[in-house]
Amino acid sequence: MLLSSRRFLAPLFALCLVGVALSAPTATVASAAQSRVVVAGSTTLPASSKIVHRVINANFDVTLAARDPAGLRSFLADLTSATSPQYRHFLTTAQYAARFGASEASVAAVRAYLTSYGLRVRLLSAGRNLLELSGRTTQIARAFATPVETVHLADGSLRAQFARAATLPSSIAHDITAVAGLSSVITPRAQLLSARASSAVALPGTCASASPSATSTPNSAGAYSVAQQAQLYGLSGAWAQGKTGQGQTIALYELGQYDPSNTATFFKCYGLTPTINTVNVDGGTTGGYNNEATMDVEEAAALAPGATLAVYQAPNTSSGNLDLYARIASDNIASVVSTSWGDCEIDPTGTVAAEQVIFEQMAAQGQTVIAASGDNGSSDCNGIISNAPAVDDPASQPLVTGVGGLTVSSIATPVVQSVWNANGGAGGGGTSQVWSRPAWQNAPGITPAETMRMVPDLSVMADPATGFMNYNTHNATGTCQGWCAIGGTSIGAPLVSALVATGAQVCGAARLGFLNPTLYNLARTAPAFTDVTAGSNDLFGTGMYTAGVGYDMASGLGSPNTTFVNDLCATPVNVARSALVFSSTHNVAGTASHLTVALRDANGNTIINAPVVVSAHGSSGRVTIDADRTSVRSRSSALYTVASDQNGNASFTLQSSLPGPVVVSVTFNGAVLFSSTVVVHAVPLNEQKPLTPRITRVAARSKGVVLSIGARAARTPFVVALQVSVDGGLTWHSYPASSATITLVNLKGRVTYSLLVRARNANGYSPVSAPIRVATLR
Q1: 539 near 473, Cβ under 8 Å?
Q2: How far apart are CA 154 and CA 74, in angstroms?
Q3: Looking at the DSSP assignment, which residues form a beta bridge with residue 132?
Q4: Listing from the earlier edge strand, what are the strands of the sheet with 637-643?
Q5: Residues 403, 320 within the same domain
Q6: Which of 335-339, 370-374, 584-588 has the weakest average pLDDT?
Q7: Is residue 3 part of a domain?
């Protein structure tokens, strides 16, 4: 996968596209005896590539199909639906593997085939959805029935790539969703813009007490202080309450190594002592220190100082990037995953589909994934394919939250901001060419004509002239060294990750999980975003995209405002100020009882258009909510969703067919607001319909029938008349209620009749009896 560190440091220094290509000698391909299916494509080698005739050992990955893909989609939808009883009920890694990971048979079949060609399985991921493999290029070529080339890169390393589409036998191809690490050899790139040196900028003596400039604008270096960022995005209030992300772990996805001496200088200045753990994957990173990683560590620690940082590092290779995501998912210690690395969505083939498998596992486990949307505006493939509109992966993945970029000129109220399109870059955004628009992507500004996934989902500061103050001594020659202003959507991923980690602690939640359904619901129901209506991300003159009212593909839903962190909470309802009200204390079997849930927040304000889930469990009889048959779950229980009206009231009816206690629970966003017992009484005799008459004997007569009527038991509903039908209920003949027998005459002889019997009183008719078959005599 061609990855890029989307990152800017203000004034410009030219972007370095470290694009290198690697190939290998063409290997002999063995013929396949059975039909084969394409499982991976191959990108065109860069013109500068040098193919060498040498057999090498290569690492690559195979992603495995989920055991129950339809069930997985349904489960993920329930996890993020506030109306579902499964809302935010996440799985452990072991539970995910057992429920959705590839079956033993599938793993065995894939393993047996690949190892039969001499390939070695290095690892089966804990989620049972990824096989890490290695082998010689000749073995890989035979297994996938395609030539494999060895490419010599500019840095002297060798890399393997398929020369043509790769195939596998149809018997196992259905068990595989993608092959990653062999479709492209282009070296991941880092996009960096340097700011002018800030040696003349007088930083506060203690960085921890750094305050906004007097004019609420960036300092002379072009950056906002940590305190100003906290003020702008609502962290200040959380910090004042001691909410700093404690209990949360932010995984930083890094294909480069951070410099601990640089971060130590940064932390000492700000008075921070963060907990940082480093996890090396595939041997860890190679090369020198990387400012992308250094910046990620500094910003995440500064904005969520109470959170633990887990820095996951892997080599910047074609298989390292996917192995890194898989390890984060397998370890499952991170509640939030931040990545500032990405690539044009349509280059190369294969990796996007392979990543989706891992992101599904992360979503099921409650891991929130935040990704930078890219710094090439609406043309993410610039320098790779063309300047045609394109978006960035993984920000465009349906289970990832994509962060766009803004120029923030002033943090005064109202905030002065526009879509970032200056100083050499622009916030990424546009329409996916891979993923359809998910059902949750619904907000003002989105029309039915939009059928594909759109990014970004939200935006924060990114312009290197209005960015973040970073300490780094490893910038390119001639650029800022030490304390520097830095920008790009790279700063947005750790920034938003810090908001999510802090929000989880504010909400008292272990994890907030996949965030996008919550974000788009907030855009429809709460003032959690500041709409951005100025600017465009049309960096290369393609005509895409301009900000406007509501959602747009330049700024997404807008920027998080000062209430955003609190708005992430699962239950904004204040139970003390809300109420469950019964309209009547006399609840009678078979009759609807009216109940109302009054939803109020901590200030007593009404909460409108909010779904509540009502569940009812009775001791006997059939329980129904709102007289809707679909609410019935079993003989004595029901489940139903009701939305609050403009007055904040969610009203519904409850009915039980038999007397007895019914326990009613009201849940909002997965939390139980109220639980109460409704006692359903028997209907008074004078209000009940009669019982079905009891027939004790049937005697046939010549052209007639005699029915014997059993006596009514004490304390049963009164009866005004008994009725009999001989034509299937089309017509009824009435007889006195006191009749001990009913004699039917003038019937036809030797004819079998099917008789129906019922009783009547002022309240209506009894249930009709079962058909009584009798043949008259001649």
Answers
A1: no
A2: 47
A3: 61, 123
A4: 587-588, 671-681, 660-668, 611-618, 637-643, 632-634
A5: yes
A6: 584-588
A7: no
Half-sphere exposure for 218 (CA within 13 Å, toward CB): 26
Q: State both tokens at 193.
A: 């813009």
- Six token digits for residue 393: 């992966």
What's the pLDDT score for residue 148?
Answer: 94
The answer to whether 251 and 337 have CB atoms below 8 angstroms apart is yes
Q: By the 8 A CB rule, do 730 and 749 touch? A: no
- First-residue to last-residue Cα distance in the chain: 93
The residues annotated as belonging to the active site are 292, 296, 490
What are 728's two structure tokens? Answer: 């299937």
CA dihedral 229, 230, 232, 233 (to 10 degrees): 110
Mapped onto helix, strand or coil, the DSSP state of residue 338 is strand
Burial of 104 (0-12, 13-18, 19+ CB in 10 A): exposed
Judged against a pLDDT cut of 50, whether residue 416 lies above it is answered with: yes
Helix axes 351-365, 320-331, angle to 10 degrees: 10
Evaluate whether residue 603 is within a structural domain: yes
In Å, what is the CA distance from 4 to each residue of 194, 292, 328, 470? 16, 10, 19, 19
Return the half-sphere exposure (C-beta side, CA atoms, 13 A cut-off) of residue 359: 23
Whether pLDDT at 691 is above 60: yes
**Under a CB-based contact definition with an 8 Å cutoff, are residues 86 and 56 in contact?**
no
> Cα angle at 85 between 79 and 90, to 5 degrees?
35
Q: How many CB atoms lie within 10 A of CB 561?
A: 17
Q: In one letter, which amino acid is 446?
A: I
**Average of per-residue pLDDT values in the chain:** 87
Residue 225 is encoded by which pair of tokens? 């202080």
CB 562 within 8 A of CB 457: no
Query: Is the CB of residue 377 less than 8 Å from the CB of residue 72?
Result: no
Among 567, 589, 616, residue at a domain's last position: 567
Angstrom distance (rounded) from CA 538 to CA 379: 8
Side-chain half-sphere CA neighbours of 234 within 13 A: 21
3-state secondary structure of 260: helix
Q: What is the pLDDT of residues 554-593, one digit of tens each?
A: 999 999 999 999 888 865 678 888 999 987 767 888 889 9
Cα angle: 453, vertex 458, 460; to 5 degrees: 145
Range of 735's domain?
Answer: 687-775
CA gap 651, 653 in Å, rounded: 7
**Is it the case that residue 209 has pLDDT exceeding 50?**
no
Structure confidence at residue 34 (pLDDT):
73
Which CATH number belongs to the domain containing residue 314 in this structure? 3.40.50.200
Contact 344, 395 (CB under 8 A): no
Query: Do 663 and 617 meet the contact criterion of CB atoms below 8 Å apart?
Result: yes
DSSP lists the bridge partners of residue 121 as 133
- Both tokens of residue 308? 């633990």
Our count of domains for the chain comes to 4
